[in-house]
Amino acid sequence: MDLKLRRLSYPLGVEVCDIDVAAPMSESQFGQIYQAFLDHCVLLFRGQDITREQHIAFSSRFGALDPHDAFPSDRHPDYPQLMVVTNEAQADGSPSVSRYAGRRWHTDMSQTLRPAAASLLRSWRVPEVGGDTMFANMYLAYDALSDGMKKLIDGLHAVHFSGTRKLDATQTDQAHASEQQRISPPVAHPVARVHPETGRKCIFLGEKVKRFDGMTEEESKPLIDYLNRHATRPEFVFRHQWRPNDIIVWDNRCTLHEALGDFDQTQNRYMERTTVFGTPLGYAVSA
Ligand code: SIN
Asked: What does CATH list as the number for 4-276?
């Protein structure tokens, strides 16, 4: 049976229609889904009223799941394969530690030596309006660079830092950032990355990057800012408006994404994400 796909935007993303991700799925049917993932970088499945176990089981078909050792504070207490992203207060009334998770352009786990291949984010509760997620296509962004710029970045490695999440100036937040930096010391990855499965080149950057390896922050900043601005130009971006029980799957190796905080914070936004391990990449550097 052929998959029914509906394009979500010009640069990337398709909706996979009429699929229940929790239903038994043959290898060949999953193969078509996986091919669509490689071809379109972002997949949307609507109306997936599934259990956590089913979310984990479907995610496992994309590869081995990360137990989120790099984010112990955001991990679901009973399911280490699930990361919680929410603005809902904790049981003791204190603010959610993940309330600012994803609020800048990034690719998941790039602060580690095994950046994520895929992420599968499921929406449980969403605000009436806003709280969208944006995705940008890094193949198109790389292809649109001049030959001179491609040559320049082909030789560069970018240093990705943990603990760069937006913070309120509370001690808890500062302590959280320091702990994140302790768990994941900085790592360097190629700025022009070859996707391990498609063989295509893409920009691999985002706002966890503070400098290029071998250069100071001051020297690096203008080019990092330019590349991140270029990479997230509207013509490379799809903006997703969530409904409850959506699942979005994205390929972290060739996309950036950003969660928007433009919603009424008295309303609940509660999401859970699985993260599929990617192949080892990069090397450790000193801070
Ligand atoms: C994430 O960066 O994984 C979270 C994205 C979102 O909450 O929309």
From this structure: 3.60.130.10
